[in-house]
Known about the structure:
Rossmann fold
Amino acid sequence: MNILLLGSGGREHAMACQLAASPKCTNLYVAPGNAGTAGMANHYGQTLVQNVAIEPTDFAAIHSFVIRHEISMVVVGPEAPLVAGIKDYFASNLTLRKVMVIGPSKQCAQLEGSKDYAKAFMQRHNIPTAAYRTFTTDTLKDGIAFLDTLKPPYVLKADGLAAGKGVLILPSLKEAKQELTSMLRDAKFGEASSKVVIEEYLDGVELSVFVLCDGKHYKILPTAKDYKRIGEGDTGLNTGGMGSVSPVFFADKQFMQKVEDRIVSPTVKGLYKEETPYKGFVFIGLMAVADPTTGELEPYVIEYNVRMGDPETESVFPRIKSDMVGLLEHVWRGNLQQTSLEIDPRAAACVMAVAEGYPGHYEKGQPINGIDDVDGSIVYHAGTRLDDQGRLLTNGGRVLCVTSLADSIPQALLKSYQELSKISWNGMYYRRDIGQDLLKMIVGH
Ligand code: AMP
Ligand code: GLY
């Protein structure tokens, strides 16, 4: 079959590798893709891989491309087309209706598009999450009074999508009140902060859990942890993600049973009851909080996303051995329970390399050297492009990552760092401490 994958990051390069490797895939088109997906043209045996210059939210262009190229499946990488309603666009058109769109409806995408919607959903379905209240400009005074009742640090979340910047964690009551005012009254994050969720602070360790859902049945994919801050020791500004490891050692059988019983199962049941069938990936950001009396780790939901994570996909997808196109067909047909998920028992570690200055201002167009010397690891491209002479150039903040599979996380990390050291460009930066927090926890265990 012919498949169209939307997106251009490392996540999409990792997804493209899995889709193209499937014997069911004849042509894989990536819109718009990057130099990594462009470079897949000669690597995937029977499958032809090609980039197409279409933006993931340009539904009219996607529509005509799907018809012209007889696309049977559209896999959506990022959230923007989902929040903009790509699933509904296909469902409301007689010719497009039969195309398998992997991703939820606009309504379900509100799980990611609105913090208030997500919190209310969790409350309705008794899913453990931090206690919260939502405020608007009209109720700013009540919001300030509510802050008076809480203990520091204070967590303020712009309701809408704010490019990963809409969550503030503030140490003092004074700052919390100032920021709440600036979000609600002065539209600090524009329309996104016309509503603000204030919630209880959860003290714990984060991890990401991914669920593939056909509307009713689901498969839990391998766990991962990502590293969001730019600086080592989790310092500095938030980024899209500087690396990831999979699996997360403390997410053992007992912990994952709690996650499944208290979070995954009620989430899928809730979606089934309330919405059009959710056919796609659910990304659950969790905080594992130690119970003060028993010391046992208890999972709480921090956020939902309606897509895979980036760079978590770059350590989760290479561990999936089952045929990805086959899995997604089961998702579309609603019979995911009839298939099994085969996971590579090895650990994966992904280290992301970024442009100097990222996540602030950075230069594009730096020549990248040494990629061909990488041996035994996978290079996933993110912000890269080829120039007219076929030279590889940087083309974004997050440029590329190296993922390695090995018998343990320390071995996988060692290999990724070894291979990454062969690559260079002017201003290349990466964190040297990916996974170290988990390794310290293991030692202290
Ligand atoms: P979110 O966009 O909701 O994932 O929040 C961004 C980041 O803020 C998360 O990855 C957490 O590190 C942190 N965070 C969000 N909510 C809380 C909370 N209730 N308690 C502690 N940290 C939080
Ligand atoms: N790695 C976090 C995200 O994709 O949102």
